[in-house]
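Internal tracking record. Fields below are filled automatically when a chain is submitted to the structure queue. Please do not edit lines marked as system-generated. If the sequence contains nonstandard residues, flag them in the REMARKS field before resubmitting.
Queue: standard
Priority: normal
Entity type: single polypeptide chain
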Amino acid sequence: MEFLNNQGKKDGRESVGKRCWRTSGLSSLDISQTGPENMDPLQFPLALSMEFSFPDANVSLGANSSNSTFLGFPVSPEIQSVLIPVIYLLVCAVGLSGNTLVIYVVLRYAKMKTVTNIYILNLAIADVLFMLGLPFLATQNAISYWPFGSFLCHLVTAFDGINQFTSIFCLTVMSLDRYVAVVHPIKSTKWRRPRVAKLISLAVWTLSILVVLPIIIFADVQEDLPLCNMSWPEPINIWSAAFIIYTSVLGFFGPLLVICLCYLLIVFKVKSSGIRVGSTRHRRSERKVTKMVVIIVLVFVFCWLPFYIVNIVNLIFILPEEPALVGVFCFVVILSYANSCANPILYGFLSDNFKQSFQKVLCLRKGNGVEDGDPTEHRPEKSSRLQEVMLLQRSVNSNGHMPTSKV
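SYSTEM-GENERATED OUTPUT FOLLOWS
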């Protein structure tokens, strides 16, 4: 899905060069020979293809140009055709290995199968599916056209869109789960079970597929320019603008509003009522899990917010023909890709249990098992009752109404 599209021909699909794009969010920034007055905002691109022509300034980012820039720095066409694919493949290698490791440890160790980790598992699966398509996008950027046919174009584009929507939907569900776990720790034990989390995850995937149906339907190899991109029917401008609004609301700002509301309510409830349910160890564990989820959400927003800001700005204003703008656009697309390989790194730093699991799998430490960071989630059907009994026993013992056993 493109960001700026050349309207030099009637069907609006003629373009001078490759595109900087991402399927579910931005589109390609394609500034062509027809000038800015003929450019219209188009949707989100899949890949980051970089070839933009500025005839008046004699500046181009394409393979046929002798004067190229990336993020404001001069880059030769040869380096240009290699730089972006290399970045793609680097993101793919880190993201694929990291998320595969996350999937393995959650499935491998029984004590890692907590409610929160089940949502993390689905987040990792979505990232892995997208990473499998990155080599195809890197190839398109390197050779300036899509050689893999229409079916793979639909498939890779679908994976890209599903990755974005599944990620934000999983983060929304995780935030709702944090609200329920912190504000209603006793009542929530009925619903905060791995089996329920799996059903919710299935609903998240179903919703994501439904939301990306327009991407699946309209993605194709374009006729005039052999790139895998969105091919909207007439009127192209209305379709593309509507799609930007559609994906921005459903794929970012709507879920982000729910997430912010969840954490505001958590803060309000804790401050106003001084919630102190469960043991000190349990409360400390809940704080750690909540902190990890909050940081994951913040990193997601950091990686994706610039992408949507550029889209919305381009929807309202005509962006000027400046090489620096092209570099900034390509940077925000790469930043959105990088989010898919950031989460496993965050888990390793923020969760002792993921860290221990990673070390065990990579043979960096020895151990017979891994303790999970949320002790109430291992056996959610029994843990709440056990804690209530323990608290009751402590209360009775402290009041002297029941004889205590000596060790």
